[in-house]
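Thread: Modeling a multi-component assembly for a lab meeting

Hi all, long-time lurker, first post. My supervisor asked me to bring a structural picture of a complex we are working on to next week's group meeting, and I have zero experience with this. I have the sequence lines for every component (501 residues in total). Could someone generate the structure of the whole assembly? Inputs are pasted exactly as I received them:
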Amino acid sequence: MSVNFLYPEYEVERNTNRCIACRVCERQCANEVHRYDEDLQMMLADESKCVNCHRCVSLCPTRALKIVKTNHTFKESANWTKNNIEELYRQANSGGVLLTSMGNPCDYPVYWDKILINASQVTNPSIDPLREPMETRTYLGKKNVKIERDANGKLIPNLPVNLELTMPMLFGAMSYGAISYNAHESLARAAEALGIYYNTGEGGLHQDFYKYGPNTIVQVASGRFGVHKDYLESGAAIEIKIGQGAKPGIGGHLPGHKTMGDISRTRMIPEGSDAISPAPHHDIYSIEDLRQLVFSLKEATNYKKPVSVKIAAVHNIAAIASGIARSGADIIAIDGFRGGTGAAPTRIRDNVGIPIELALAAVDQRLRDEGIRDNVSIVVSGSIRNSADIVKAVALGADAVYLGTAALMALGCHLCRSCHTGKCNWGISTQRPELVKRLNPNIGSQRLINLMNAWNHEIKEMMGGMGINSIEALRGNRLMLRGVGLNEKELEILGIKHAGE
Ligand code: SF4
Ligand code: SF4
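Re: Modeling a multi-component assembly
Sure thing. I ran the full set together rather than chain by chain. Output:
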C-alpha cells in the first residue's frame, strides 16, 4: 500500500454562515479545489490541490473564504526543516527533478534592506521635485566620449545608438508561451504609453505586437525561437540571452502541450514539439564568439540598434562583464539569483547564483577600474520590489532596472509559484483561453502605468531629498548609501560605508 507522507500546505477556511453556495470559487479555480456536493448540499474543498493563488478569496462575493497555512508539523530540526522533509518525500514519490516557478524564496540576505539612502540637511539643500525640474530620463547604450567637428567647425553627429527611457525602468524578458497573449499585450501597451520598453523573452514576437516594435526589446536566446530578419528589425534593441538568474547555467524547456497554435507559429516550431533551449549557445564558447554574434546582429540591422547581453549573476561576474563590455555589446543586463521564472528546477533556483546587489557593485567597480564603464550601460534585475530598491541600484552603478515579478504582480499575480503548471488563475502564465481572458489588457496596462508612474514619482522625491536632480548624477554615487548590519567584506564589495561613518 502506498502512503502519502505529504499533508496539504494550505487549508481552506469557509465561513458557512457567509457562504451562499454561489459556486463562484468552483468556477474560478483551475486547480479544482472547490466543488459543490449535491448530497450534502454544501461546498467542499480538496486542499491538496490548493496553491494559495487567492483567486477564490478575491472573488468570493460574501468574503466567506480564507486560505491559511496549515499548522500541521513534521518533527523538524534546524537541519531537517519542513521544507527539506517535504521535498525529499516528493522526490521519493516521483523520482523526478522538482520543478517550481517565480524567484528564490530562501532566507539569504536581502542587501537592499541593509542599505540606507542619504538626505540633505542644512548645507546641501534638498530639491522639491514638485517645484523644480527633476530628470529621470535615462539613455542606455555607449556614451559618447568624443566631440567631433568638421572643417567648418560644425558638430559631426556621431552619437552612438541609444535607447531613450522616460524613467530608469523596463519590463523584463518574459516569453509568449511562458506568459499569455493578454499579459504581453498589457506589457506592450504600458511600455508604449510610458515611453519605456518591454522584452519579448525567448519566444519570438506575436504578429499582432509588431506595432509595438519601437518599445520592444527582442531577444535572441540559445534556441533561436522566432528569430528572423523582420523580428530583429522590428525591435528597438536586440538582447542576446546567455543566462537567467533563476536558472544560471541551464537551458529552458517549454513542453509540447504548450507549443500549440500561435505559440508554435511565433516560435517557428511544429505544433506539439518541445521547445528546448540548450544550456549554451552552440556558437559561443569565448568572448570572441560572443563578439561575432553581437556584430552579426548589428550588421543584420544596419548598426541602428543597441545590442544587450543578458547574463545571470554568478561567481566572477565582474570578469565576465568586463569581457562582454569588450565584445562590442552596448548594454549588459545582469539578473540576480532572486530573479523570477516561469519554470525552473527548484534545486537550481534556490542554490545557484549570487545576489544582484553584490554583482552590480562588483561589475560597476571593475568597469570603472578598467576605464570602460562608458562603453556599456548596466541594467539589473532579480527581485526589485519598490522604488527605493531602484534608487539603491542606480546609486550602486545601474543605469536602469528590469522589472519582471513586480510587473506581473501589478497584473494580478499573487506569487503562488505555480506558473509551471500552466493553470494560472489570474490569466498571466497560462495559455488556456478561458483563463487568459480573465486578464483584461485595458486594466492590466493601466495598472502597470499606475505602478511605474508612482515609482517614478517616489524616485524623484528620494533624489530631491538627496539634493540630486538627475538619474545621471545619482548613477554610481555610492556616497549616498550607507550599510546597516553588514560586515567589512560586504561593505567593501558594495563600496559603501557603514551607517554612522
Ligand atoms: S465563492 Fe464564496 S460564497 Fe460562493 S460558493 Fe465559494 S465560498 Fe461560497
Ligand atoms: S503568474 Fe499566476 S501562476 Fe505564476 S505565481 Fe503569479 S498567480 Fe501564480
